[in-house]
Each structure stands twice: as structure tokens, then as C-alpha cells.
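Example for tutorial group B:
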């Protein structure tokens, strides 16, 4: 079996297994230089994180605020625009937020049982 190669299609001779000189080179056979490969930047790729703007409704916990995020969506059946409110628990490292502040929060890894957001900035005090 020195001249034959066994394939899933059946036995083939060595001449059929090797490419001709007249045939075009395949991409796997062509050696590409560093200029052919895309440049990668030094910045690691991260997923874009969700950000939400809302009003602080509670700051009674230590380093935690509760932010009410209001979004306006059309009603499923009638189409009227209705308000939907979601309360998010966010991490406030410096305890700098007060009730009524307008803040921007960003999604993060789970910090506790309920906290999945962290404070980015206070927009209005």
C-alpha cells in the first residue's frame, strides 16, 4: 500500500491523491505571511454591557441602592404606550446617592443575591 491511500470513498492511487502542477493551489497549501492575517489590537474584547438610566428610590442599605427604571412600551393588544417599571439593585461603593437622584447603572457580574448592577455616574442630584 505504498502507492495507494485509503479514503472514505475507497482506495485511490498516489497520483490522484497528490495535486497536479497545473491545478490552482488550495488555500490550505498556500503559506500566508503576517500581512495576510488580520491585526489584533492590544485591547481585550469584552461584551458590551447594558446600561440603564433611572431614579434612586431607596438607599437604606449599605453600599446598595434601588433604582427604578421606567421604559415605555406599546401595549400588546391595544397598542397604547404604557409605562413599565423595573427595580434594579445596584452597587454604590461610596454611598453617595440620595433618594430622587437620576443615575446611570451598568450591568455587572452577580455581587449578591439580588445585585447585578453597579453605579456608573450620578446624572442629577
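The residue assignment follows.
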Amino acid at each position: 500500500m505504498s502507492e495507494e491511500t485509503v479514503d472514505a470513498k475507497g482506495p485511490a492511487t498516489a497520483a490522484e491523491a497528490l495535486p497536479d502542477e497545473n491545478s490552482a493551489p488550495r488555500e490550505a497549501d498556500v503559506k500566508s505571511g503576517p500581512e495576510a492575517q488580520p491585526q489584533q489590537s492590544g485591547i481585550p474584547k469584552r461584551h458590551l454591557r447594558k446600561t440603564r438610566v433611572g431614579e434612586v428610590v431607596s438607599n437604606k442599605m449599605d453600599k446598595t441602592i434601588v433604582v427604578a427604571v421606567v421604559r415605555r412600551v406599546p401595549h400588546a393588544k391595544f397598542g397604547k404606550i404604557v409605562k413599565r417599571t423595573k427595580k434594579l439593585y445596584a452597587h454604590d461603593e461610596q454611598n453617595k446617592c440620595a433618594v430622587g437622584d437620576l443615575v446611570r447603572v451598568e450591568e455587572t457580574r452577580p455581587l449578591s443575591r439580588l445585585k447585578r448592577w453597579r453605579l456608573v455616574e450620578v446624572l442629577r442630584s
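The first helix runs from residue 14 to 17. Compare this with the pattern of hydrophobic and polar residues in the output above.
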